Amino acid sequence: MRPTVVDHIGIAVKSIEDALAFWESSLGIKCTGIEEVAEQRVKTAFLPLGDTEVELLEATSDDSPVAKFIEKKGEGIHHIAIRVENLEEALNELKEKGIKLIDETPRYGAGGARIAFVHPKSTGGVLLELSER
Ligand code: CMX
What we know:
The chain is α+β, with helices and mostly antiparallel strands. The chain contains three helices and eight strands. It binds carboxymethyldethia coenzyme *A.
């Protein structure tokens, strides 16, 4: 499936505005934009850093996966996204290997990327996102 780079690291936060005080003001990593992903009930802020990005995730509703995550585990690293060249091919390959997929077909995420999530039960406890740009 030829993963190329860590596309981004997703961090669940209660408030993007509050989190930016640390990431932008204290660390000097500038946010390039805030976007709502209605389907996932999240607001996202992307902060490019070298070949990768930090993605801050704030829930926009109580039933958002990010709200559930914060309720259970508190704020912190929510997922890691790796970039693949061909998402369908990567999903078929993982399926054949018996890996538990959350998304069996690609969907659209922030920034227009095509994405699919792999269940933490199959990855050693890490929610993994595959991303094709
Ligand atoms: N990282 C690691 N483990 C996680 C996790 C996460 N982010 N979220 C849940 N888990 C673990 C739970 O701790 C639980 O483990 P145990 O059974 O050992 O307790 C297990 O996964 C199942 O969790 P759950 O709470 O019973 O199930 P949920 O209903 O919360 O669903 C998940 C979990 C991952 C299937 C769901 O959150 C999901 O489908 N996520 C993909 C979509 C998503 O996260 N969207 C937000 C980001 C969108 C974006 O970046 O654009």
